[in-house]
Design a protein that fits this description.
four-stranded mixed beta sheet
């Protein structure tokens, strides 16, 4: 005697008949070709399973969307690609950052109509340089900073484009 019949005095079949009523026969007659098609499973690579991906553009798990670390190239190439594709109406140039910091920085300048529309600085989280940010503030030029090596900040594409759009007011 099964657990259901001990508890309720019914068999599983009786409980199913009560639950589905006259439609129970539809479930009894299902064939394997009646099942909805299942999407193909991705082929697993030999060795270890790929690490899990997150849905958030920051945090412990690498986001599923394109980000600086999943991009096939350097972080500078990653930002060049995003800026060129998503902000093509601007003339964008970049150059190594100036100053005495021992940590490398890269500066992107967005021009529109002959004026500087935005300065984006890519720098290490270990840098404490404020010179460019302070200069932009004095000159009234919009400024953004992205850290290329801050743990948990993946610089996911949506995060980068959302911040740049907000600063450009587009």
């Amino acid at each position: 005697m099964g657990l259901l019949s001990k508890l309720f005095g019914k068999t599983v079949e009786d409980a199913a008949a009560d639950m589905f009523g006259s439609e129970k026969h539809y479930f009894d007659n299902l064939r394997s070709d009646d099942a909805p098609p299942q999407p193909p499973k991705p082929a697993a690579k030999k060795g270890s399973a790929p690490p899990p991906r997150g849905n958030c553009p920051w945090g412990e798990l690498m986001p599923a969307e394109e980000n600086q670390y999943s991009f096939n190239g350097s972080y500078i190439q990653y930002f060049e690609k995003i800026f060129g594709a998503d902000f093509s109406s601007y003339q964008i140039s970049h150059a190594p950052g100036q100053g005495r910091s021992i940590h490398h920085a890269e500066v992107f300048t967005f021009m529109n109509g002959g004026r500087v529309a935005l300065i984006v600085e890519l720098m290490s989280e270990k840098s404490s340089s404020r010179a460019l940010r302070d200069k932009c503030q004095r000159d009234g030029v919009p400024y953004l900073r992205f850290y290329y090596d801050h743990d948990g900040w993946w610089n996911a594409r949506s995060y980068v484009t959302d911040r740049v759009r907000a600063r450009l007011s587009v």
